[in-house]
# Entry
Amino acid sequence: MGAVVPLRCAGSLPASPGTPNRSSNLPIPRLSRMELRAGDSWGIFTFLCAALCNLPALPALNCTEELGAGQSIQKTYDLTRYLEHQLRTLAGTYLNYLGPPFNEPDFNPPRLARAERVPSATVDLDLWRGLTDNARLAANYRAYSRLLCYLRALDGQAGTAELRHRLGHFCSSLQGLVLSIAGVMSSLGYPLPAGPAGPPAPPGTPVAPNDFLKKMDDFWLLKELQTWLWRSAKDFNRLKKKVPPAVVTLRLEARGF
# Structure
């Protein structure tokens, strides 16, 4: 530990106004920060050298920006909105690939029992908002993990190179969303859910008995994914308003003490 070089100020603190100094009749000197004279350049140089030599022994002031929950939620929200935009392009291309009536704007078939394997986002909004933040995040994490598996299956069945490229790019982005949601849960202190969104399809599950029902499964997969992304964007928008943004913290790390 280096020597401490004291800094002395010339003179003493003056008495309060209007009260004379009774102990001495000498005039009260003025207070100055440091009394420097023209011949003190060598002393200043010596002082600076001593300070530089003792820098390793002084506490280091480190400025670190912690990646807090607020910044993680903002990134997840931005990714969700990006996926919404990306899905509109993908869905248009894929529905045109399926052909009529799936690519018609007013086509809205009932959901078949086969489609129940796909995580449904059609939950009452009041009931959904009544859940805790942890429950909503866990539901999003499980749903997107399961939807991602179905989308990867579509990628392997796509008939054109352009469609396979779009599906592959979207799957990569959706995988990023799953990881981002996991990061939000971790930053808020929530554990990751253990199981999937619903019962997994058992091995050897038969495929659709005909081409129309297979296309119907694909249609509902895209429709549910669209609803999930729409609702998730609202969830993360509300959540980021509840969590303060990341702050810059100052840390003192003692070195050589």
About this structure: The helical segments are 41-53, 69-98, 125-129, 133-157, 161-187, 211-242. The mean pLDDT is 74. The beta strands are 60-65, 248-253.
